[in-house]
Write a structure and sequence with these properties.
Layout: E1 5-13, E2 16-24, E3 31-37, H1 45-56, E4 60-63, H2 75-86, H3 89-105, E5 109-119, H4 121-131, E6 139-142, E7 160-165, H5 173-185, E8 190-195, H6 219-236
Parallel strand pairs: 3-4, 3-5, 5-6, 6-7, 7-8
Antiparallel strand pairs: 1-2, 2-4
Length: about 240
């Protein structure tokens, strides 16, 4: 295994002090960079480990924050924070741009070779960066089949990969159809993978606090979704020496 260096980074966004997790690969040269957005509960060790896993593959990776350093275990508190956020593309873009600025300012990161991946609310933030016309090489999301304001998907300048569980009640078939119709109408290079039998947040290991109905971990599909995201990055944002 290569040596990965990590550090905490603080930056302002959404009237909060955000606390992200930056992971750097071994070596001294510039590398492609990946932004990682968490589920609505907020940044956790799950996303931190994913940032470190990407650094092992040679990427500079920043797992960004949604709630000013807080992890929202109470589902009602999480919904009270996330639902207004999901309804406000400009706020999501502010959060995404603030984190992306931190990532691109990192000396080890190649600011011209970046991608954004995310889960749930963090995936919606990644999509809004695309709809805002940000120059990204790829966008990958799980549980984030959100649709944007009319016409703005045409600003997406990179391939979009999306994954969802077939039994996800929060992202039902009608929402899948709306998302794919938006991507298709905009001429986006898009892919949707439906993981059979999986619920919402199927990628996230089980937690010891109360979760919303329809949420559940699916170990096999979690591994498959991660491999799909890594393959997306390898295709669109390869690490070269």
């Amino acid at each position: 295994m290569t040596t990965v260096t990590t550090r905490t980074v603080e930056y302002p966004a959404d009237n909060l002090t955000m606390i992200g997790h930056l992971a750097l690969p071994a070596g001294a040269g510039r590398r492609p960079a990946v932004l990682i957005g968490p589920e609505g509960v907020g940044l956790s060790d799950v996303e931190r480990r994913r940032a470190e896993a990407l650094a092992e593959l040679g990427y500079v990776a920043l797992a960004f924050d949604l709630h000013g350093g807080r992890y929202l275990e109470d589902p009602e508190e999480m919904l009270a924070r996330c639902m207004p956020l999901l309804a406000d593309p400009d706020r999501m873009r502010e959060i995404g741009h603030a984190a992306l600025d931190v990532l691109r300012a990192e000396p080890r990161a190649d600011p011209d070779r970046t991608a954004a991946i995310g889960y749930g609310t963090g995936g919606a933030v990644a999509l809004e960066l695309g709809r805002d016309g940000v120059d990204l090489r790829a966008i990958g999301t799980v549980n984030a089949l959100t649709t944007g304001r009319p016409g703005e998907a045409a600003r997406i300048r990179c391939p979009v990969w999306a994954g969802v569980g077939s039994e996800d009640p929060i992202m039902p078939p009608a929402q899948r159809d709306a998302f794919t119709a938006e991507m298709q109408a905009a001429g986006v290079d898009w892919r949707l993978v439906v993981y059979g039998g999986a619920l919402h947040a199927f990628h996230h290991p089980s937690v010891d606090h109360t979760v919303r109905p329809g949420v559940g971990y699916h170990p096999r599909h979690a591994q498959r979704a991660w491999r799909d995201i890594v393959a997306l990055l390898a295709e669109c944002l390869p690490v070269t020496d």
